[in-house]
Write a structure and sequence with these properties.
Layout lengths: L5 H30 L3 H39 L3 H25 L1 H8 L7 H13 L2 H17 L4 H23 L15 H31 L13 H32 L4 H37 L2 H28 L1 H9 L6 H32 L5 H25 L2 H21 L11 H32 L5 H23 L4 H9 L1
Helix pairs in contact: 1-7, 1-10, 2-3, 2-5, 2-6, 2-8, 2-9, 2-10, 3-6, 4-5, 5-8, 6-8, 7-8, 9-14, 9-15, 10-11, 10-13, 11-13, 11-16, 12-13, 13-15, 14-15, 16-17
């Protein structure tokens, strides 16, 4: 077996995801400046979240979690992997074309299901309009996710990891075009002539969504063709292998549906608090930076690697891959979580507070950032634990665990919303994340040696936590000293960069001192 280079693949995906998140921050800074947390921002965010929600359900969720292990094992065994990928591509294209048409026609119902607090509000009509424009994104991005799975399973990570960068670049251009072009203020849907600029930006953002999906599909399709996989549109056929794929994907689809219900619960709770949909979205962008760079990278690389090792009977190699992925994940995300908890106000104020985004918006968003930060290690650990099940083609167990986590989310978010307001949505997400980790870990105990924590992981975990705690204290003290500079428009970016740099230097210094990791390991990984 020619194994996937786990750390090299992890770094490839992580670096490109980091670049995507940087462009994503630029995009969200511009959206916050033009739209703030107002009605147009909330309408667009709900409209864009609809195809994104179904994307996670169809592509990155159920289908890919079933497809990647099967495809990886065919690659390892030298079977006709390209034919299997072509059949899956044709089947997904057919099903999602039908689903896209249905979604466009049923958009008012989808918007109500996502944000019933918008009902009889100007936000509802605008969200329906934007949703119908943006919804074809689900077709393009789901096909792109399947093609990305083909590339990832064969150890080719760059094109699939680079594709999201294009999405954010297109969004940035759309904001600039929207600010430069016009929409008749008389079409302001009761929002007032002073909102006409925001409406122009919202229009171009909505139109850019399906375009971005098509461009991303084109990029990975070309990469797959160069790798020898010529995927094309064709008449779908229900072959025995696709029946097996559907049987494996069905429980994962149910599990994915449960996860999306969690998102719906959060949106529903937020929609009843003016501005909360936008506050949670901007907070989500901050904690998604480390989650995307680390968690998604681990999930993308670890699943095909474990699948191929299981096919080859390499239990020891599988255990080492699992432990090193979890170790590297926590070494990078625990300090990020600490930073989100201890300095959320400087982060949010410097990055977003300008134009239509006010000080009140900063404080509300910062509170959500801190709550999400508490759950960040859980969200990343899920990415390391789930491949243990999916690589064994076990999609039923994660479904049962997701159901239990959903109940935690619903009870906390809905039950506490009348008491603590919109932040109950973020708290429910965080507690549900930790419940899911505990259930996944407990369920993996029956998998034997390959799913056990090794001595190195246990030795380093508490040292990582200690280094992160010391870094948190350093950040608090430094933020207090830099407070006046963080509030000064001319130097606040420089002050924030200095704060973050000192925190990173402190963490790596403390980590080296405590034996949490060895910097030489990172250097060797980068060189490879």
């Amino acid at each position: 077996m020619k194994p996937i280079r786990l750390v090299q693949g992890f770094l490839t995906v992580g670096i490109w995801t980091l670049l995507s998140r940087v462009f994503g921050f630029a995009r969200d800074i511009m959206i916050a400046g033009y739209l703030g947390a107002g009605p147009v921002a909330e309408a667009f965010l709900v409209a864009f979240s609809l195809p994104n929600m179904f994307r996670r359900f169809f592509a990155e969720g159920a289908f890919n979690m079933a497809f990647v292990p099967m495809f990886s094992k065919k690659v390892e065994a030298g079977e006709d992997a390209e034919r299997f990928a072509q059949e899956a591509f044709a089947g997904m294209a057919f099903l999602l074309t039908i689903f896209t048409v249905i979604g466009i026609l049923a958009m008012p119902g989808l918007v109500f299901a996502m944000a019933s607090g918008f009902a009889e509000d100007e936000r509802f009509e605008l969200a329906v309009e934007y949703g119908r424009i943006a919804f074809p994104y689900i077709l393009f991005i789901s096909l792109a996710a399947l093609v990305s799975g083909v590339l990832n399973a064969t150890g080719r990570f760059m094109a699939a990891a680079a594709a999201p960068v294009l999405l954010n670049v297109i969004f940035i251009v759309a904001v600039l075009i929207g600010a430069a072009m016009g929409r008749d203020p008389s079409e302001s849907l009761g929002l007032g002539i002073d909102r006409a600029l925001g409406l122009r930006v919202g229009d171009t953002l909505a139109a850019s969504v399906p375009l971005a999906g098509l461009v991303q599909l084109g990029l990975v399709w070309i990469a797959a063709k160069r790798a020898g996989f010529h995927l094309r549109l064709a008449r779908p056929r229900m072959t025995p292998e696709l029946k097996k794929l559907a049987a494996i994907a069905a429980p994962a689809a149910l599990a994915g549906g449960v996860v999306q219900i969690n998102l719906l619960v959060g949106r529903q709770v937020a929609s009843f608090f003016e501005g909360a949909v936008a506050w949670l979205n901007y907070a989500d962008r901050l904690y998604q930076l480390p989650l995307g760079v680390v968690g998604i990278a681990v999930g993308v690389v670890l699943l095909p690697d474990l699948s191929r090792r299981l096919r080859a009977g390499d239990e020891a190699g599988g255990r080492d891959a699992f432990n090193r992925a979890a170790e590297m994940s926590l070494a990078l995300t625990i300090p990020a979580a600490v930073a989100l908890v201890v300095i959320p106000v400087p982060l949010v104020s410097v990055l977003f507070e300008r134009g239509a985004f006010t000080t009140d918006d900063t404080m509300a968003t910062a509170l959500a950032v801190a709550v999400y930060g508490l759950g960040l290690p859980a969200f990343v650990l899920q990415k390391a634990l789930q491949p243990l099940f999916f690589a064994r083609e076990d999609t039923r167990s994660p479904f049962r665990y997701a159901l239990a986590a959903m109940l935690v989310n619903v009870v906390v978010a809905v039950g506490l919303a009348p008491v603590i307001g919109f932040i109950a949505a973020a708290l429910g997400t965080t507690l549900a994340g930790w419940a899911m980790v505990w259930l996944l870990w407990r369920g993996s105990r029956s998998m034997g040696h390959a799913a056990e924590w090794d001595d190195r992981f246990r030795h380093r975990l508490w040292r990582i936590c200690g280094a992160s705690a010391l870094m948190g204290a350093l950040l608090l003290g430094t933020a207090a000293l830099l407070g006046p500079f963080l509030a000064t428009a001319s130097v606040r970016y420089l002050a924030l960069a200095l704060l973050v740099a000192l925190g990173m230097a402190g963490y790596f210094g403390f980590g080296q001192l405590l034996g949490a990791f060895r910097l030489a390991e990172f250097r060797r990984a980068v060189r490879r």
